[in-house]
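Work Package 3 (structural annotation) set out to generate three-dimensional models for the target panel prioritized at the project kickoff. During this period the team completed the workflow that converts sequence records into discrete structure tokens, so that structures can be stored uniformly alongside our sequence database. As a representative example, we reproduce one entry of 461 residues exactly as it appears in the project archive.
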Amino acid sequence: MVYMSKNRSPWIHQLNRTRPVVQLKHDTEVDVAIVGGGIAGVSSAFFILRDTDKKVIILEASKVAHGATGHNAGQVTSYFERPFDELVQEFGLEKAAEGQRAIELSWELLDQIYTEAELTIPLSRFVGYDGFSTLEQICDHLKKNALRVKAHLPVQMLFISENFDLKNDISAEYKDLYTIVSHKKVLELLETENPDFIAVAEDQKGVINSALFTEEVVAYLLKTYPDRFNVFENTKIQKVVLKKDDAVLDAGQAEVKAKRVLLCTNGFENFEILNFDLAINTEFHHSINGVVARMSGYLENLNKPPMSISYYLKPTAGFDDMEDPYFYLTRRPFDYENNKHNLVCLGGPQHTIPDREEYIFDYEYPDEYQKETDDFLRRLYDVDPNKKIEYVFTWHGLMGYTPNRVRRIGYEPLNPVLLYNLGCNGVGILPSIYGGKRISELLARKELPESIFDPKDQRSI
């Protein structure tokens, strides 16, 4: 077994960037200063430039797409890492449904960016699967599906094995929300021979290199809006001072005066935000929890279609279990050293770090995590048991989790000069794009209904 210790991402590996790094070294004035050059910041810039006449800059502490955007799982999916029934309990059925619907419809926003920016980078979209191994997991899924029906959302079909001994214990109220199939069918969909799986749910999923996507969109924006858009990298913001009608950002060697400041970060930016003389980050930034996710990737023959599968083996493993998460697998075409392969990526091992603790980007990938991933692969996925697997890529990334695991999109309640499109919450690509569109609508002064994404006044929480 070969273990790689460096933080080596396949998405960064595919970047063939020729654009020079430009650092901000002179004072400037803009309408909107976006802090963060990942997919959230760039998607926000795309829609703001497209739908308004505002002048926009992106300020990135390192390089565009080299943070969480370049160190994620590369999976496109529309679920929240929080059960739908809990969202209903917190926000009510109507608001929760509108929030869920907004993310699911963001596939159309992704298509819009592809069309208008004339992107040619790979994007695979397909039906993906979640494998369940307990009655509890099945009933939780059916409960959420029943609420989706009530909310007029599409149902996520569930297939249950005819061999499942406890299938008669499922409440009769859910009888129209699942189909009994052969156990062989369940295992075929999950591409496993592990008999512990007794049900499978399907959902719309996809795979993309979000770093390559982000860099290509930046190139399009620079070409299309040369008079209204610019990007400054290696430009770390040290302080943001909010005033009544504008803000000043301290970038070390230069200052930026902006009518609006949009934070598109993972919540772990270590700079002060002052609202006149009141530091608002005391309440807000300390509410973001950091989760470091670890992923591995190896190459296999290009003989299977793109796919995304999540495996839930332990009774408690699920979206709301941070210390004992599920494992997931994605597969996609991947060019490596002038040859075409399938890249199989695996994720699961992760741990929470204390708020504002420094995340070490080059932290070595521990062998213990790699062994856990390898054990999962050999136990569940269709792989030759005698095959020596060489993990060409091992990487990790920092995700920012809001307290309720719902993205924050909109105005800071203490001062609308500041806006947010942040909170990866583990599933960030579609929510980032939707957040960018919603921010552009707010800046265009479009009347929008209250949303589950609206930032709350942290003083009252």
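Residues 135-150 form the longest helix (16 residues).
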